[in-house]
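G., the chain you wanted modeled:
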Amino acid sequence: MAFAETVVLGHIVVRVELDGESYRLSYGELVVYEDGRRRIRGRSAPYAFRSVEQLRYDFERDVEAAGGRLA
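Predicted structure as tokens:
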């Protein structure tokens, strides 16, 4: 079962897409998590998926650390 949501926060588009073991979360182009990788301010690094809850926590933390806001 797939889940997809898009939210516009001011001038930033936030997208969440989950489909089985595939995922993509993005806060504009500032922070992007996608299938085993995360990119923050253009710098890419491996990301070890553990759970949806951990994915959400890590994404929110990185958005805030990069200067973004989800609320």
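The chain has a mean pLDDT of 94.

Shout if anything looks off.
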